[in-house]
Amino acid sequence: MPSSDRVPPEILDLARSARRVTVLTGAGMSVESGVPTFRDAQTGLWERFDPVELATPEAWEEDPAQCWAWYAWRASLVRGTEPHPGHLALAQWQARPGIDLRISTQNVDALHERAGATVLAHVHGDLFALRCAGCGAPADTGYPPITEPVARLDPPACHQCGGLVRPGVVWFGEALPERAFQDSVEAAQEADLVLVVGTSGLVYPAASIPDFAGARGVPVVEINPRVSEVSASADHTWRATAGQALPALVS
Ligand SMILES: CC(C)NC(=O)[C@H](Cc1c[nH]c2ccccc12)NC(=O)[C@H](CCCC/N=C(/NCCC(=O)O)S[C@H]1O[C@H](COP(=O)(O)OP(=O)(O)OC[C@H]2O[C@@H](n3cnc4c(N)ncnc43)[C@H](O)[C@@H]2O)[C@@H](O)[C@H]1O)NC(=O)OCc1ccccc1
Ligand SMILES: [Zn+2]
Description:
The protein is an alpha/beta fold. The protein has helices spanning 9-17, 45-48, 51-54, 57-62, 64-79, 85-94, 111-114, 178-189, 209-215, 242-250, and strands at 20-25, 100-105, 121-122, 125-132, 165-169, 193-197, 220-223, 236-238. It is built from ten helices and eight strands. The strands form two sheets. Strands 3-2-1-6-7-8 form a six-stranded parallel β-sheet. A two-stranded antiparallel sheet has the order 4-5. NAD(+) binds at residues 106-109, 198-200, 224-226, 242. It is found in: Cytoplasm.
């Protein structure tokens, strides 16, 4: 059982005394569940696939079948994973009486929800929230189950207008869901403690959210086994994984 004695004492004090906690998570939060990050050496998705080719509106216009195939593969990969003790620890902490814990995630994998947590904001959208690229109507077609990446797969057609159904994620060059970003900034500003878990802090405007907390004097704690763009502005950094740190922090 991970014990709190491995938690840096100044971080344990902050966590114990906080009533309003805002947690910002990135791809590192889901690594221990088997979902690859984007930028980690060798294992990162962007090491193997070109984001410009696959995660932009232009790529979709250019070749929707290539994009759809890639997202269908990622959806199958994510469906084959389970939340890990870090996800469960956040859900447990959120359920504690007197605790107002808000989660804002850049992840599109729904693992926080599958761990029983309520997510305030999916700032980069949700892989499983499909919609028509034409009329915007929600689509319940789902993804075909595929195990290996395939080059191309035709997206399903929209029931309303016959347009192509696309993943509900935010592509590079697309605006973030308005409410999601604003709610995340407010949650960061109004917190007693902000935890930043498993993000490189390279993608904007999501990467600016911790700064809104810092500007209000809210303590920012980074949990990441490696140095990131967040490290310099964090008040405390804990070089640990999400799966190790969060259960110890919550126990
Ligand atoms: C790359 C970067 C330079 N580019 C951007 O930021 C761009 C452009 C830009 C805008 N403003 C800027 C300012 C400066 C520079 C550039 C920009 N931003 C945009 O395009 C945004 C939209 C960005 C959203 C892109 N979509 C994603 N995902 C969904 C899709 C999909 O999933 O396919 S971003 C994608 O990368 C994000 C960031 O990555 P991280 O989560 O941080 O993951 P990463 O792999 O980088 O790092 C993992 C970390 O985990 C750590 N780790 C590893 N293992 C563990 C472990 N076990 N435990 C804990 N931590 C761990 C590692 O050490 C590491 O630090 C992910 O969250 C993921 O969502 N849109 C927009 O600006 O629109 C404008 C606009 C405004 C109005 C109207 C019209 C347009
Ligand atoms: Zn449509």
